From TrEMBL:
The organism of origin for this protein: Streptomyces akebiae
Region Disordered, annotated ranges: 257-335
Descriptive protein name: Hydrolase
A Pfam family it matches: ChW
InterPro entries: ChW
TM helices/strands, residue ranges: 220-242
Extent of Gly residues compositional bias: 298-313
Organism ancestry: Bacteria, Bacillati, Actinomycetota, Actinomycetes, Kitasatosporales
Superkingdom, natural source: Bacteria
Length: 486
């Protein structure tokens, strides 16, 4: 070997978001002038720079280059020892390539973000918000979740109350809010509450939300009942005040010797009987309702130009609906009743919905710089699915997107939609998804703008509630295509 190398120091430590430098010394032990090129290799090579990148040495002379390590403050910078290496390529003797190795320890850091989905829930007897807890650090986080409010007006059922979150992953906590007192009548009331994400030795992270409690019976019903009660009281009062009094004078007439028989009518004194009042006529036909006019055929005036069977007839061909993910998954379930299947399609900005794909095929576009704004997913044989979209946030102040409400789900054989297919819908940056099968979960792979396909990732049954996050929190990196398997 015509080259001697030395790393000074051989082991180094660096904080994510900062940098550190290691010196690489080398000596040309050969007998000819040689030029050396340096290439970082290993998992931390993307964060390693070499200055200078080439070095020319005469025989017997020594030189040095500096290796600078600058891991980002993201979950990708895994905490702990990380091996690294530098490939040294001699120009004159390429067969004498040397790869000195060293060790770089990346210090751990924790960063947790929590968000309510949705921040405001409404209900008469209960509300069901979800709390999304994201681990933005490079080490596993263990936390507990509790709820509180002023005046102890709500009770909280939180599941799970304790979570463990891997770096770069998210956990979703379901909560049920129940008011301690029911509002029977009246206007709705807002009850602010707070979820606290607690970690050992760290100040709790508070997330505020609002529960809007509606009255059990609508306000207009209470008004109507009050009016009816007032009318009933008024009618009863008037009836009691003006009730006619019937007094019999038979006894008094007998005591006075007066006959109670009516006198015989006299032709000259008899008067005609008053006419019997005629009741107002009552119509037996039901009230007529106006027929809604159909578009373009509301009146039978000029313009039709002929007989009655022309345009607007019943034989006009109706447009055929495009198949959805549920259409495709039901066909698979019919041919394989005992199997597990997932079908999905993507809404591509500028192109619309793609055809349904199933069980690991690609939905979306690759290399066309067209973001996805919505997904349509359906499953069979796994007990249903639930998911939420993480989308671009134009008002972001930390360079990250945000979750949109609502969290949606569907049982086997039915369509589940997340995101938005409107013209001005924001691009999807990521998503969360799970299936209800307790034995096996769901796997996903995504194609991101400027990053290509990411590794296949699956949830882990048995480790808390099973949700998997696909994509990124970066506000400028959108999804272009997806693959799913169950």
């Amino acid at each position: 070997m015509s080259l001697w190398t030395s790393l000074e120091p051989a082991s180094a430590t660096v904080d994510p978001g900062s940098s550190t430098t290691v010196r690489l010394r080398l000596r040309n032990t050969g007998d000819v002038v040689d030029e050396y090129r340096f290439e970082p290799v290993g998992d931390i090579a993307p964060w390693t720079t070499v200055e200078p990148q080439t070095l020319r040495l005469y025989p017997g002379t020594t030189g040095s280059v500096e290796l600078t390590f600058a891991p980002p403050r993201t979950p990708d910078a895994t905490a702990g020892p990380n091996a690294y290496a530098v490939r040294i390529l001699p120009t004159e003797h390429p067969e004498a390539t040397t790869v000195p190795e060293g060790n770089l320890t990346i210090t751990p850091f924790t960063e947790v973000r929590a968000e309510l989905v949705p921040p405001t829930v409404k209900g008469r007897l209960r509300g069901r918000p979800k709390l999304a807890v994201d681990n933005l650090g490079n080490t596993k986080v263990t936390a507990s979740v509790s709820g509180s409010d002023n005046g102890d007006q709500l009770s909280y059922d939180i599941h799970p109350s304790n979570v463990q979150i891997e770096p770069g992953r998210a956990a979703f906590v379901k909560a049920t809010l129940k008011p301690r007192q029911i509002i029977w009548f009246g206007s709705k009331e807002e009850r602010p509450y707070t979820f606290a994400v607690k970690r050992s030795g760290v100040t709790p992270l508070d997330v505020e939300g609002t529960y809007v409690q509606r009255s059990f019976l609508p306000g207009w019903l209470a008004t109507c009942l009050g009016i009816l009660l007032a009318l009933a009281i008024t009618f009863l009062t008037l009836w009691l005040a003006y009730q006619p009094k019937v007094v019999s004078a038979t006894t008094e007439l007998r005591e006075a010797g007066v006959s109670t028989l009516p006198p015989s009518p006299s032709p000259s004194l008899s008067a005609p009987a008053p006419p019997t009042p005629t009741p107002p006529p009552v119509s037996s036909a039901p009230p007529q309702t106006e027929e809604p006019k159909s578009d373009g055929a509301g009146e039978s005036g000029s313009g039709s130009g002929g007989g009655g069977g022309g345009s607007g007839g019943g034989d006009e061909e109706q447009p055929k609906k495009a198949p959805t993910a549920a259409t495709a998954v039901r066909q698979l379930a019919a041919s394989d009743p005992g199997g597990r299947h997932v079908c999905y399609r993507a809404f591509v900005k500028g192109k619309g919905w793609t055809s349904p794909e199933c069980d690991g095929d690609t939905a979306g576009t690759v290399g066309q710089a067209r973001p996805l704004t919505a997904l349509n997913i359906a499953v069979s044989g796994v007990g249903g699915t639930a998911s939420a979209a993480f989308v671009h946030n134009p008002g972001s102040t930390n360079g990250q997107g945000h979750y949109v409400e609502p969290w949606s789900g569907a049982p086997d054989g039915l369509d589940n939609y997340i995101g938005d297919s409107k013209k001005d819908a924001p691009a999807m940056l990521g998503f969360t998804i799970n299936v209800d099968d307790g034995a096996r979960g769901v796997c996903q792979s995504v194609h991101q703008k400027d990053r290509g396909w990411q590794n296949l990732a699956c949830d882990k049954p048995g480790e808390g509630e099973r949700y998997i996050f696909g994509g990124t929190l970066d506000n400028g990196i959108w999804l272009e295509a997806v693959k799913f398997t169950v």
